[in-house]
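Running this now, will post back.
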Amino acid sequence: MSKTSNEIVHDPNGGMDRLREIMRRLRDPKSGCPWDIEQDFGTIAPYTIEEAYEVADAIEREAWEELKGELGDLLFQSVFHAQMAEERGLFSFDDVADGMSDKMVARHPHVFGSESRDKSAEQQTRDWETIKAAERAAKAQQGVLDGVAIGLPALLRAVKLQKRAARVGFDWPETAQVLDKIQEEARELVEAKDTLSHDEIREEMGDLLFVMANLARHLDVEPEEALRKANAKFERRFSYVEQRLADHDRKPEESTLEEMDAFWNEIRTRDKLSQGAE
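Update: finished.
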């Protein structure tokens, strides 16, 4: 005997069936949640991006119990989008899962097919790119840069665009050339900042950031990850400055730059000593 909707919703071990039924009930035009009913792909997309970042944040902090919840939040976003698509007759959640499964099987013939697994990681990367190029061709994406999602974070998208161009030889062969370009862009921006319009300054700043992303790629560093770590370090060190000021019954706005800088150098020195002891 199949379970009723209420039995599925309240089954603590209901798994994906439970989650999908909850989503269906939330979107029910007659008895669902008014907020959930009003949503569409466009209004939910920002939440999907936010949840992905919260997953990355939990991993960065090694907050494994939080990660379980954040992964659930991200999974719910997929269920939400799939439910809206099914209501419009576009596709179902099973179509999403089957499509992903088909893609993974096709992209890993060395695991699921007859192709040999005896290859280097570099060779596998080249094979992967060949397969993805064929997929883009099947979608009528002819340009080298076609298919790089516009909604990606700007730094991540910059690296993806650069990697695509590098595959066809459009790349600096040496890291030193990237460094030269960074110096050139930075110098031009500083020299012209008093004569350029705001739009021109923004464009020059974008050029500089784009080359910085290129440097990260040449150094095999993910710029998004690097910047997240830099943000976390800045937060931790500035919190130390605030605490040291609080020890003297002071707040940052009641202090001077020189005083805050002195405390900042304290924590920087402590960090370096700690790293040297590891």
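The chain has 13 helices and no strands. More later if anyone needs it.
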